Amino acid sequence: MKSIIVPVDFSKQSEIALKVAAKIAIKHNAELYVLHMLELSPVIMSDTGYVSQEHIVHLIKTGEKRFVDFLDKPYLKDVIVFPIIKHYKVFSEVNEIVEKHEADLVVMGSHGTDGLKEIFIGSNTEKVVRNSDVPVLVVKGEVTNFKYERMVFASDFKKESVSAILNAMAFAKLLGAALNLVYVNTPADAFLSNKDAHRRISNTLDKAKLELEVAIYNDYTVEKGIFNYAESINADIIGIPTHGRKGLSHFFMGSIGEDVANHSKIPVVTFKI
Known about the structure:
The protein has 273 residues and is an alpha/beta fold.
């Protein structure tokens, strides 16, 4: 792993993500590119007279100073950090930065859920996930003693998921984590017999030219199955596929990706199909 992108907004959650990224960077001798997007809209940045040039300069300087103070952390002293400031929020630019610096990973914080309020969905994190061509590690809450020895990757094992499976394997290898693949079998219309489930998994793995073991885990919902299986093997990270620009609502089965990303107690990493 050579470089990691960490978008920050000075919130507690983005600092938690920065801590996690720093731990990964130290272990793998990687560089951190910390990105902050100022709250300056294209209208303000235009020369239309809405805001004086002096005020714009003041806003930029204030944001830059706050960014410098934010990066003055003891856990970053052993990490090579490159700060990047964009003057307004264009989330597609994150992927341009990923390509420019050949980054292997984006790490972001997310508030997840607070009661019935789904903060993650429609958030900055989702926008980055939509545009990123590399894995996005979503971190929620305080992560103590972060480790990544075991990773679960959940899939429906339809043939379109081959690229995500290969990317998950490459990512796990990059981290040095053991990878456990799982297919969650549920009742009602989505139910598959063991024979049919094995046939679907086998056909997809044959297409990918892979010989891997895949656990078939029975549960009432896919979300519960992913969480219960991850807990049963003491997983440190949950991996799920996404269709990218179609958003989290188009993960491998309806809104399952949204639910997993919102409700997971451990970090979630997304892989574009």
